[in-house]
Write a structure and sequence with these properties.
- It is built from no helices and seven strands.
- By secondary structure, the chain is an all-beta fold.
- The chain has one domain.
- The chain has a six-stranded antiparallel β-barrel.
- A hairpin with an 8-residue loop joins strand 6 and strand 7.
- The two termini are about 20 Å apart.
- The N terminus and C terminus are likely disordered.
Length: about 110
Amino acid sequence: MSTVSHEEPCLTDDMNGVHVVETSDGTRLRVDLDDRVVTTYPVAGSSIRRRRSEEVDLVLLATCRVGEPMVLLLDLVIPGVWFTRRTTEAVASIHRAGDGTAPGRSR
């Protein structure tokens, strides 16, 4: 997964574009703020056990700042459940995916 070298200090829900967020445990999340989807790419030993490399709908990016956990509200298409809250390990880096080589959409 390639990204441009421009690192960002934070993401907000009203931004646009595709961003790659890496957490302190090495997990990478592809956050597409245009299409409102998130894809998680955990590393070996990650606490993430479900939804590996599966694209899920982003309801809200609550917080994403380097040095703090990222908080997302996701639609996991569970009947009767409007959204699920997901909190990651602390964010280590945020890069804008700008060269077209970030993992693509699976829909």
